[in-house]
Amino acid sequence: MINPRRPKRGEVAVVRSGGRIRVGIFDLERGRTVLRSDRGTRWLPPDAVYVGVAALASPTLDGMPTG
Question: If both were cysteines, with which of 6, 7, 47, 64 could 11 make a disulfide (CB 3.0 to 4.6 Å apart)?
């Protein structure tokens, strides 16, 4: 389930960027928005579209930290 609102820091965000859907922990780094996952930190471009906040996910979302 996705709650269609802009994410807050620490929430699991679903973002459309560069023609791909990305999932990660929404955060700020050096004043810029980023997504953190088990594959590292990805800075989001200004034209990124926030699809929403993951409210419920099963099975584990690809790229999300598991532990």
Answer: 7
What residues contact 4, with CB distance under 8 A and at least 6 apart?
51, 52
pLDDT digits (tens, 9 = 90+) for 6-56: 899 999 999 998 888 888 999 999 999 999 988 889 999 999 999 999 876
Cα 19 to Cα 14, 22, 45, 57, 65: the distances in Å are 13, 10, 12, 22, 23
Angle made by CA atoms 15, 19, 33, in degrees to the nearest 5 = 35
Task: Give the DSSP letter string of 1-36.
Answer: -EE-S---TTSEEEEEETTEEEEEEEEEETTEEEEE
State the pLDDT confidence band at 58, using cuts at 50, 70 and 90: low
Neighbours of 12 (CB within 10 A): 19
